[in-house]
Amino acid sequence: MRAPLPDLSARQLEAVLALAEYGSFIAAAARLRVSQPALTRLLQKLESELGVRLFDRSTRRVQITEAGREFAAVAERMLNDLGITVQSVREVAQERRGLVVVSCVMSVAGGVLPRMIAAYRSGRPGVEIHIREGVYASILDDVRSGVADFGISYVDELPDFAVGMPLGREVFHAVVPARHKLAKRRSISLAELAAHPIVALPTESRTRRTIDAAAVTAGVQLRQRVVVTQIATLLALVGAGVGVGVVPGGATRGPPVPGVKVVPLAEPRLVRRIGLITLREREATPAAAGLMALLRERWRQQGD
């Protein structure tokens, strides 16, 4: 069992250091801007808590004891460490320092998120941000395990442990090679895409399941001939003429991909709500809360 710790205050530690430096109650009290009786009471209470005498007093001078010298060295380290800790805590609370881990669907991570991260970090250069790109299931796992501070994904259907805060809508679009005959169309239906090879995401992707469900409802059988795990790869393969595809609108807001034409998807029009996902009853850190607030504000400004 650990011995009970004494009840010490920073003011008592400062009193020991001032007395050790000046050797006078009058000078130390002036340094600390307290009365001499108040300084005497501080020291008496401290010595009572420690059970040792730190200073020998006489009518002319105050002399530190061996125990006092050892305690003064400890007091100086404690005050220095406390000052550093207080500064660090304030920086974290004011979003000047910290770490935020965001687990995000690929369409947003490669689309609108970079500009929003840049806006956040412009005023908080000391905050470190980690982006984990993934599919719906992996984002939920990251949030549930605590690996991520929050997720950005579809919020239409969430498990009980998660809380969703809608940001906006994600409208799906067709992507075709720029020289493809469908590239001149104003809109493309799933039935029209079914006549061509499809570059698709894996079946565990919520994007893929949304598209497949819509195709089944429309009585359309899509021919997924190439399956990739990254939207950037999907777009690159479409640009190379491998096939056509369907992607969330966020994926089309990033840098243009050479050789790819984005065409609105019609019949049926696919729309899902996208938003922030947090772990129920988990309080966000100041840096994470600040980033989520910025994302909500910027999303409203850009619209759906």
Automatic annotation (TrEMBL):
Source taxon at top rank: Bacteria
GO cellular component: cytosol
Residues annotated as domain HTH lysR-type: 8-65
Keyword Iron-sulfur: no
Residues passing through the membrane, by range: none
GO molecular function: DNA binding; DNA-binding transcription factor activity
Keywords associated with the record: DNA-binding, Transcription, Transcription regulation
InterPro entries with a match to the protein in the record: HTH-type_LysR_regulators, LysR_HTH_N, LysR_subst-bd, WH-like_DNA-bd_sf, WH_DNA-bd_sf
Family from the record: Belongs to the LysR transcriptional regulatory family.
Protein name: DNA-binding transcriptional regulator, LysR family
Protein source organism: Enhydrobacter aerosaccus
